[in-house]
Amino acid sequence: MKFSNVLVQWYLQNKRDLPWRQTSNPYKIWLSEIILQQTRVDQGMVYYFKFIEHFPTVFHLAKASEEEVLKLWQGLGYYSRARNLHFSAKYIVNELKGHFPSSYIQILKLKGVGDYTASAIASICYNEATAVVDGNVYRVLARYFGIATPINSTKGIKEFKLLAQKLLNPTISGTHNQAVMEFGARMCKPQNPDCEICPLNESCVALQKQIVKTLPVKEKKLTIKKRYFNYLVVQTPNNKTIIEKREKGIWINLYQFPLLESAHEIDVNQLITSEKFDKLFGKLNTSVKLFNQTMVVHKLSHQHIYTKFWIINIPNSAKFSLNWDEIKRFPVPILIDNFLNEYKSN
């Protein structure tokens, strides 16, 4: 228990004052955990407060439209989290009569919830003895015990989970889990960890062997895919445009300007001779101008999107009837939102 006791003592003295640590309400803990997946705490906190304000209970979230939820989530990325959150809220209200699942096994059944999130909620809200393993935990355990097994391998995932479970203090599961995660986030950091003042430094294998910077080990990622997006931004004299709802892939159910995806970067001649351009504008007189001379590169974990925004000036047409002022009420990818803010200021 020494490992757990040291971390818990450190945690109680150094923990950050975060809003979701002031409650044991499983809905709020669940909301915070979903938001904090792939998101920094300082960025996630803003969204946490927005969601609590708009949807104070799971019943409010379940009643909302998906569009409302996506709009509130806008800018946070990984939108499947928001769709899964909304889906699970409706499941809790409609199938579980509004009662949040109260065990690891039950919580794991919620869409978008994996081992880590289920363990966190079950231990923090119900003190169930199930250990969390996230990026921070991997780092602390790999360094302290000198483990070189890749953390993203099947063997590594199993090995670290078993070790975390063995180290867990079952009488204070929630506090222990939060302690090791906080320790990884603030003391045993990815870069420049505070080894000199670390309360575990006398027994840390990585520090003794001077391999702190090499742990944890991660297998090489897959090759990043390059994609080329060409957005056709319609502008009419009477300030009308058009947007479309994305039906598949990344950003599904978010809105965007008509999109021509190409295999490589294209110029204006290739754009105006494309089937997409012809289908959208036909014989209308068009004036085409590239808005961004340098392609905008939007980096996701598995792909990089190289983007051009083409401003298409055309005569007034009933085909294009959306007022520019109305666009802001639609949920859009951050890539589109950034363009809108820049286009409006020009």
TrEMBL record:
Keywords: 4Fe-4S, DNA damage, DNA repair, Glycosidase, Hydrolase, Iron, Iron-sulfur, Metal-binding. InterPro entries: A/G_AdeGlyc_MutY, DNA_glycosylase, Endonuclease3_FeS-loop_motif, HhH-GPD_domain, HhH_base_excis_C, HhH_motif, MIG/MutY, MutY_C. Belongs to the Nth/MutY family. Its cofactor is [4Fe-4S] cluster. CDD domains: ENDO3c (cd00056), NUDIX_DNA_Glycosylase_C-MutY (cd03431). It catalyses: Hydrolyzes free adenine bases from 7,8-dihydro-8-oxoguanine:adenine mismatched double-stranded DNA, leaving an apurinic site. This is Adenine DNA glycosylase. Binds 1 [4Fe-4S] cluster. It holds the Pfam family EndIII_4Fe-2S. Residues 35-186 form the HhH-GPD domain. The lineage of its organism: Bacteria, Pseudomonadati, Bacteroidota, Flavobacteriia, Flavobacteriales. One of its GO terms (molecular function) is 4 iron, 4 sulfur cluster binding. Gene3D superfamilies: Helix-hairpin-Helix base-excision DNA repair enzymes (C-terminal) (1.10.1670.10), Hypothetical protein, domain 2 (1.10.340.30). Adenine glycosylase active on G-A mispairs. MutY also corrects error-prone DNA synthesis past GO lesions which are due to the oxidatively damaged form of guanine: 7,8-dihydro-8-oxoguanine (8-oxo-dGTP). It comes from Lutibacter maritimus. Its EC number is 3.2.2.31. One of its GO terms (biological process) is base-excision repair.
